[in-house]
Amino acid sequence: MRTHLRFALPVLALAAAGLLLDGCASTPLAPKAMLTYKTVPEGAQLFEGSVALGMGPVTRTYLGDGKSNTITTPDVTAVWPSGAKTSFYTLLTVGDDRVATLQRPADAPGLQTDLDNAQKVAATQAREAERLKALQHADQARASSRCKDQQSGRSMAVADDCS
């Protein structure tokens, strides 16, 4: 009797797993597409209608209606500090993951204002990247076996990067 039970349990477990997977396979995924908005020069604020999305780049996920394989994005407007603006919309195919670049109109006044702002944005992004790199380095140091030994009391070595 034990022999039959020993073989029956794995078979039952496999059957249950198959039913669970079959249930997952029949559930359709939501029809969606992603679009990342970038601006040139950097530093423009993005708006979808009257809703502020933030400063580019911004990634948006758009849901389809389930009837069509295409998704029409709403108008997104980029506004630079000078007041220059441009709008954009597109048709996406379900499953897309694309990038759209919104270019500042060449004939809009205040180009130097927007270029100066783009330099400030780039400098801020570079400082943030350095800050995140330093945090990651500190996290890696604290996770090292040397630091763990020190924290557990197994090592008396002094290591400033472990605190």
Contiguous uncertain segments of 5+ residues:
1-5, 23-27
C-alpha Rg, in Å? 27 Å
The percent range for helix content is: 25-40%
Q: What is the oligomeric state here?
A: single chain
Neighbour order of strands in the largest sheet? 3-2-6-7
Helix-strand string:
HEEEEEEEEEHH
Span of the ends, CA to CA: 60 Å
- DSSP strand content: 25-35%
Main sheet characteristics: 4 strands, antiparallel
Q: What structural class do helix, strand and pairing data support? A: alpha+beta
Describe this structure in words.
This protein has 163 residues and is an alpha+beta fold. Helices cover 40% and strands 28% of the residues. It has helices spanning 2-25, 111-143, 145-152; strands at residues 32-40, 45-48, 51-55, 58-63, 70-72, 76-79, 85-88, 91-93, 97-103. Strands 3-2-6-7 form a four-stranded antiparallel sheet, with no helix packed on it. A three-stranded mixed sheet has the order 4-1-9, with no helix packed on it. Strands 5-8 form a two-stranded antiparallel sheet. The longest helix has 33 residues, at 111-143. It is flat. Residues 1-5 and 23-27 have low confidence and may be disordered.
